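User: Structure please.
Assistant: Input sequence and predicted structure:
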Amino acid sequence: MSLAERIVREAPDAIIAADAAGRIILWNAGAERLFGHPAAQALGQSLDLIIQEPFRARHWAGYRHVMHTGVTKYGTQLLRVPALHADGRRISVAFTVGLMSDQAGAVEGIFAILRDDTERWQTERQLRQRLAALEGTAPAGPS
C-alpha cells in the first residue's frame, strides 16, 4: 500500500470522492465515523446518502455546473453545510473540495475532506438565540 493510500485510510477526517455522476467512489474510515455508513454500503451510492432532501436540488445544480465547466469557486474556501447521518439526524460539516481531472484535463469527479462541525454550529446557534433574546429585552435607547 502506498503512502498516499495509508494517509487516506488512516486520516481522522472524512475523505470522500465522487465521480462525475455523483456516485461515491472513495469513502475512508473517517467518513464511516462521521456519517455512520460503512464503506461497503456507501461506495457506488449517490451523494444523496449524506445530503438532506431540502438541499439536494441546489447541490445537484451546482454539482452539474462544476462537472460541466471544470471550475469551482470553492477550491480553497472552507464550506459549512448541514449533512445527514445514517441514523437520520442532522449534523453540520465543514469541508474543502478539489476536482479530479484526467490527463487531458477533463473533470472526472470531485473529492472532499470533511469534519464534524456540529458542536460549533450549535454553539453559534445558542449565541444567536441569546443575543436575540437580549436585544428583545434591552431597554430602548434615547429618542
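Strands lie at 14-19, 24-27, 79-84, 90-101, 107-116.
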